[in-house]
Amino acid sequence: MAGVSLRHLYKSYSKNGPLVVKDVSLDIEDGEFMVFVGPSGCGKSTTLRMVAGLERVSQGEIYIGGELVNHVPPKKRDIAMVFQNYALYPNMSVFENMAFGLRLRKTEKHQIESAVKQNARTLEIEHLLERKPRQLSGGQRQRVALGRAIVRHPKAFLMDEPLSNLDARLRVQMRTEIIELHRRLDTTMIYVTHDQTEAMTMGTRICIMKDGIIQQVGVPEDVYMKPANMFVANFIGSPPINFLEGRLRLGKDGGLMFDTPRYAIPLAPEKSKTLLEKGYLDKAVVLGIRAENVYKSDQAEGLGVSIKTETPITGEVYFSELVGADRFIHVKVGDDKIVMRAAAYDRIADGMKLELALNPQFTLFFNRDTQQAIA
Ligand SMILES: Nc1ncnc2c1ncn2[C@@H]1O[C@H](COP(=O)(O)OP(=O)(O)O)[C@@H](O)[C@H]1O
Ligand SMILES: [Mg+2]
């Protein structure tokens, strides 16, 4: 077991080519489950492959267990990698696939046998040991790929979108199994995905990337509640966060109001204080609010949410979608669109006029030019 440290890592695939990883620095602690998440092409796989030793580092350092490994070949790094396409040897049985890494290491035969059997039992693939990969379903192949990785007791596991080829239901099941596997093995895992739900549910911490640059690193709750910028706020969470443009003005009580041509809403006192101190009076800002913090104003009162405002947010429902226990109501407010979470049983017809309230405790504010959160 070992932690992994990245120090000012850069990568370009050719001499004068673009940098696809830029100044990535990150300490992944021993035993941690770190998830790299971001849109396609943001440099997740490249970063992971540099840790594995499958790509050369253009600049910067990689440490595994405190040891500088930039020039250590992949085989000697003692890490295991699981890929999206499983990369099983087609002509070998499941047993041989799982045993392969141990054989290379000249492990004794009876040890190989017991290690493979034990791990096959853990992954519930014991009955498949004699089969060839082509005789397995996608989910079973993925288990074999995991089995092949864990049987070696590596210092760290690297996984690159390992569940992407599975159907939705199996993906959710395997997610849970990988979390349990991590708990049991207590080994450092670095997991790459483009799926924010996967990142939020699996990671002990998550690292959000965009254009080769780390945007934020944190525990899922922090990334969700305190996004560092508009990109993170929008990328994390489903449905995506609502963004509203407006200007901060002084209200009658001396606190700030978020003011737009159609509505004006008072800020929570502590947010008002911070934004005043930071010089945002009369400045244009972006307000971010998640669907679960938007209410019908008549319901908000009962929830103890203060909504006193002279010009309320009024809009018209143009679309609603049922998602299990929730119903997401899409409301048009002038040119703005606001999504509100309601209960599934809350029947709100399209075309209905609504007055909305935003929970002032959970409004986020962003600088409109830099797109950075205003703390
Ligand atoms: N072998 C390669 N040669 C040249 N460019 C590459 C290579 N692999 C990836 N890239 C480019 O590097 C960028 C990051 O790719 P990648 O790390 O695969 O992103 P992600 O895994 O986040 O989707 C992309 O622009 C991609 O086109
Ligand atoms: Mg990738």
Overall geometry = elongated
Supply Rg. 25 Å
CATH topology term of the largest domain = Rossmann fold
Beta strand %:
25-35%
The quaternary organization reads as single chain
CATH superfamily of the largest domain: P-loop containing nucleotide triphosphate hydrolases
User: Gap between N and C termini, in Å?
Assistant: 37 Å
Secondary-structure element series: EEEHEEEHHHEHEHEEHHEEEHEEHEEEEE
Low-confidence stretches: none
**Average predicted local confidence, pLDDT:** 93
The domain count comes to 2
Q: How does CATH name the architecture of the largest domain?
A: 3-Layer(aba) Sandwich
Total beta-strand segments: 20
Tally of DSSP helical segments: 10
Name the bound molecules. adenosine-5'-diphosphate, magnesium ion
Helix amount: 25-40%
Largest sheet: 6 strands, mixed
CATH class of the largest domain: Alpha Beta
Biggest sheet, spatial arrangement of strands: 6-7-8-3-9-10
Based on secondary structure, the structural category is: alpha+beta
